[in-house]
Design brief:
The chain is globular. 20% of the residues are buried. The chain has 146 residues and is an alpha/beta fold. It is built from 6 helices and 4 strands; from the N terminus they run E-H-E-H-H-H-E-H-E-H. The two termini are 13 Å apart.
Length: 146
């Protein structure tokens, strides 16, 4: 089964899901990531929006997870392994290790993104922690849906 995996770049939970998909033996045809934290907002605007909608505590938790995944190997060396069971990796490291195609987009629903997805002809699109809503045209592309 050809799968496209859609996520935020180096999102800690996504790496766990992507690793599971890779281990399942299905073909990961591409990994699509968003170039923005919040769709159509700059990095600073995104931070302000997250704090406004979800609060400082949530923002700090997500920031900590981002730092944690980037420095996981160092934390592991000093005995702080929050995700012992899962051994998280960075999405970028998984893509390199398994030679997965990476597609980075600003707008998943743009005509260019839609054409790219159609050209891959996926059986399934799996989305984990993404900042955009798929329009009907995207959802209808894969044989088994999203």
């Amino acid at each position: 089964m050809r799968i496209i995996f859609v996520t935020q770049y180096d999102e800690i939970h996504s790496s766990i899901i992507l690793k599971g998909l890779i281990d399942s033996g299905h073909e990961i045809s591409a990994v699509i990531t968003s170039k923005t934290l919040i769709h159509k907002k700059s990095f600073l605007q995104s931070i302000q929006e997250v704090i406004k909608k979800s609060g400082v505590r949530y923002f700090l938790m997500r920031a900590w997870e981002g730092i944690y995944i980037k420095f996981y190997e160092y934390f592991k060396l000093v005995g702080f392994d929050k995700f012992r069971k899962y051994s998280p990796q960075r999405i970028s490291d998984l893509m390199k290790k398994h030679n997965l195609e990476h597609i980075s987009v600003y707008d998943i629903n743009s005509s260019k993104s839609i054409e790219t997805i159609k050209s891959i002809n996926p059986d399934l699109i799996v989305c984990c922690v993404f900042n955009q809503i798929f329009e009907k045209e995207i959802v209808s592309i894969p044989k088994y849906g999203c």
